[in-house]
Automatic annotation (TrEMBL):
It holds the Pfam family PKD. Gene3D superfamilies: Immunoglobulins (2.60.40.10). InterPro entries: Ig-like_fold (IPR013783), PKD_dom (IPR000601), PKD_dom_sf (IPR035986). Coiled coil: none annotated. Residues 78-113 form the PKD domain. It comes from Nocardioides bizhenqiangii. This is PKD domain-containing protein.
Length: 162
């Protein structure tokens, strides 16, 4: 970002606008979300509800724009779950661990898959401790894919004899 200077004789500091904050928001380094898969261990079963979830996070950042302190309150607005088989969904919730099963996917064929999750962040801002305002727009951060193998389980009849 370029440093900006202002002269007090010009009538005060320049105004920090929504557009200035939105540009700064897009330049902030935001972390990709990590996600968990259940069952754990990199394997799931074909035609089995595979559970996906992540941790819900809120981030706080402070930047200086046009010589003024700007606080940002940043949170995940939505999650796009790519299951690695051509299917994906977008949710406003981060899912949950077993037994809630909020974000699930059934793999229909055995094979190796690379599920991933993108996080779309939105923010509010305030200048110099003033009132909070919405930052226009959002920022989507792509998540790294995980390795997942879908395998078939074969039922076996077991006799209990005597």
């Amino acid at each position: 970002m370029n440093d900006s200077y202002w002269c007090p004789s010009d009538g005060g500091p320049p105004v920090v606008t929504d557009d200035v904050v939105a540009t700064a928001f897009r330049r902030i380094s935001l972390p990709p979300s990590t996600f968990s898969i259940q069952p754990p261990g990199g394997q799931t079963l074909v035609n089995f509800k595979t559970n996906f979830f992540t941790e819900e996070r809120t981030l706080n950042r402070t930047v200086t724009l046009l010589g003024q302190r700007v606080d940002l309150r940043i949170w995940a607005h939505s999650y796009t779950w790519h299951f690695g088989d051509g299917e994906s969904i977008t949710t406003s919730k981060p899912g949950a661990p077993y037994p809630k099963l909020l974000i699930t996917h059934n793999y229909l064929k055995k094979g190796d898959y690379r599920p991933a999750m993108d996080t779309t962040w939105v923010a509010d801002y305030r200048v110099g401790g003033g009132a909070w305002q919405s930052v226009p727009g959002s920022v989507t951060i792509e998540g790294a894919p995980a390795n997942l193998e879908a395998i078939e389980a074969r039922p076996t009849l077991v006799g209990y004899g005597g």
